Amino acid sequence: MALAVGMRGEASLVVGEAQTAAAFGAGGVLVLGTPVMIGLMENAAWQLVQPELPEGESTVGTLVNVRHLAATPMGGHVVATAELIEIDGKRLVFRVSARDDTQLVGEGTHERFRIVLERFLARLPKSPEA
After folding, report:
1. Active site residue: 10, 17, 20, 42, which one?
2. What is the pTM (predicted TM-score) of this model?
3. 102 assigned to active site
4. Domain tally, the chain
């Protein structure tokens, strides 16, 4: 199977203390942190396309435009969904959303670019520790 508009994927988690806004220093509240929700949406998109790419290729996130609509308390189950809505060369655009046990908690769009992993990593600056 190849990449095709309309493909859908999911990723899920149960909100623990490490996934809260408080753990990220973003408000001190024990509810799902926005960075975690966005990461879950990105993961759903990555998991959707990765099996369809040739060996040695991957994708990297380049744009996130998401609204966090509702709070999910610790212990809540969150499912993020990504739908591939546009393929423009190496650019992939996804409609993303996240739902908890009772409601829609986030929605928006996410873009990823296809990369050849070896070339991508070779262009990174060398770390001072290396």
Report:
1. 42
2. 0.93
3. no
4. 1
Q: What is the C-alpha separation between 95 and 108, in angstroms, rounded?
A: 6
Q: Summarize pLDDT for 103-113 with one digit per residue, the tens.
A: 999 999 999 99
Q: Establish whether 55 is a catalytic residue.
A: no
Computed over every residue of the chain, the mean pLDDT equals 95
Q: Is residue 18 part of a domain?
A: yes
| Residue 62 annotated as catalytic | no
What is the Cα–Cα distance from 33 to 79, expressed in whole angstroms? 14
Catalytic-labelled residue, pool 68, 72, 81, 111: 68
The one catalytic residue among 34, 57, 83, 109:
34
The domain spanning residue 44 has which CATH number?
Answer: 3.10.129.10
